[in-house]
Amino acid sequence: MAFGMEYDVLIIGAGSAGLSAALTLGRCLRRVLVADGGPPRNAASPGVHGFLTRDGIRPAELLRLGQEQLAPYETVEVQCLHIDTLTRQGKGFCATGHGTADDTPITVSARRVLLATGVSDILPPLPGFRELWGRGVLHCPYCHGWEVRSQPLAVYGQGRTVTGLALLVSRWSRDVIVVTNGPGHLTPNARRRLRREKIGIREEPITRLIGAKNGELRCIEFANGDQLERAALFLHAPQHQRTPLAADMGARLTSKGAVWVDSKLHTSIPGLYAAGDTKPGTQQALLAAADGNHAAIVINESLTREECPK
Ligand SMILES: Cc1cc2nc3c(=O)[nH]c(=O)nc-3n(C[C@H](O)[C@H](O)[C@H](O)COP(=O)(O)OP(=O)(O)OC[C@H]3O[C@@H](n4cnc5c(N)ncnc54)[C@H](O)[C@@H]3O)c2cc1C
């Protein structure tokens, strides 16, 4: 048990960020435990788009391949575990959690911890949003704009956020309508910019989204009974961290609730790193994988410095 810890690195989360970090750390001969706590953020989506060599792959299949390619690296273990607590133990960490299949309690120690736990999207509490999420209700035109290009689209939200997203989505389709579900809080300038791109605005309250069984959107129903046919609706949903582990440890968070990191993906807690959606920045599966690779290199170098003092 080098340095009194069972593992060199505990990676919490087995999405693109976590599995990519595990691959690089396995190649560094590091003893790694990956806690796989369940489905990734994009589980509801039919395909991961824009991922080099894997464009359109099912989210679960991408991660299955990621786990399969860890098999040669005997120092890496992936376990179906949810980590519940994280505390300091000397220069390292002690984590407790439970098996996701059988609830068995576990305690592990590790010299470094990588948080690759991602975020959850908070959808409006209206019928249809959750049901159509990932297919008819979309969060990002870079991920799904091509699939609905040139079709009638809606963009949901209020104020500056909806204006920016609607202008962006209008690069994929010339038929875009902003739906604000009540007062849109749009400035005269925002209205002018939308009008210039021929983007309509509907400010009536929405009662529900009507979709097909396969999750595609058919129309948006307003409180006055009107139905607006649309092929998809985009929104920037607020997010929260999938786990409060960083906050519980007292790690610095940004004003938007992301885990703050420096340019080396180090959080404000020594030895605790963060990669992927959990930290600030553009959220894409490929960028999360790149982050995992980056964090793994930084962590391996920090372990090497500890092992080979000046
Ligand atoms: C509907 C939808 C569609 C998307 N489509 C695309 C796309 O087409 N292309 C693209 O590039 N991006 C897409 N994205 C964005 C993409 O899903 C994320 O950028 C990516 O999943 C981030 O990877 P991650 O590893 O940081 O987090 P995640 O993939 O969310 O993985 C985090 C993992 O950590 C686990 N976890 C959380 N807490 C714990 C804990 N306490 N213990 C153990 N495990 C834990 C979670 O269960 C999860 O498996 C989409 C997102 C959504 C919502």
UniProtKB/TrEMBL annotation:
Listed InterPro entries: FAD/NAD-bd_sf, FAD/NAD-binding_dom, Ferredoxin-NADP_redctase_2
Pfam families: Pyr_redox_2
Gene3D superfamilies, per the entry: FAD/NAD(P)-binding domain
UniProt KW keywords: Flavoprotein, Oxidoreductase
Residue ranges constituting the FAD/NAD(P)-binding domain according to the UniProt record: 7-292
UniProt key word ATP-binding: no
Keyword Oxidoreductase: yes
PANTHER family: THIOREDOXIN REDUCTASE 1-RELATED-RELATED
Full protein name: Thioredoxin reductase
Organism: Hymenobacter artigasi
Taxonomic lineage from the root: Bacteria, Pseudomonadati, Bacteroidota, Cytophagia, Cytophagales
